[in-house]
Amino acid sequence: MRQTIALLLFSGLLAMPALAAPEADKQAMTREAKAVTSELVSALGGALKKALAESGPDGAITVCRDTAPELANALSLRTGWKVTRVSLKPRNPMIGQPDAWEQTILQQFDEAAKGGADAGKLVAAEIVSEPDGDYFRFMKALPVKPLCLTCHGSGQRVSASVQETLAREYPHDRATGYYAGQIRGAVTIKRKLEATN
Questions:
Q1: 7-21, 95-109, 149-163: segment of lowest average pLDDT
Q2: Which helix H or strand E contains 138, and what residues bound it?
Q3: pLDDT band for position 17 (cuts 50, 70, 90)
């Protein structure tokens, strides 16, 4: 009989139902997932700042379109985790659409942020039963920072040239209208667990 465990960390608060995996295993997977997530966020942030400095917002759009998926794929291959980014308002629905579990967590992140939680500290980890087995799943919220508003802000905050580029590159874009502190999306990673008897 499969059991699931949930480990939700909102701004340092911990809520844990009954556990199916040894606590040490859960903690080790959570630590590893946090490290992988931090590596992606750091590399992407550095690439965005460099692109903005060298070629302005159009360069940043290219980083998000091309570099971010490449970084996530490289991390996936190197670490064995499936690493990606998702959002309730994806810029590219082909690669940013959350599954049912991710939608639920993103909605919880949104509610927590609206309630005053520090968006940068919102994390969720859970063992989830899926049709082909159990997975350890982890998400870390990506808050909107002032730098993000160049391409994800609203109205006058986004220049006409950026709006034009976004309309051309992302005809189905829903990732605008944000303000600083909101949840833009999340890094989401998962790993299949070995079956136990």
A1: 7-21
A2: strand 133-143
A3: very low
User: Starting from the edge strand earliest in sequence, which strands make up the sheet with 13-15, in order?
Assistant: 13-15, 5-10, 122-130, 133-143, 183-192, 82-86
What are the structural domains, with CATH classification, of the chain? 5-144+183-192 (3.30.450)
DSSP 8-state secondary structure symbol assigned to residue 172? T
**The pLDDT of residue 197:** 53
pLDDT of residue 24: 67
Q: Model-level pTM?
A: 0.83
Which tokens sit at 108? 């919880």
Query: CA 83 → CA 15, 37, 91, 176, 186, distances in Å?
Result: 24, 8, 17, 23, 11
Q: At what angle do helices 68-79 and 23-62 cross, to 10 degrees?
A: 150
DSSP state of 65: I
Residue 112 carries which DSSP code? H
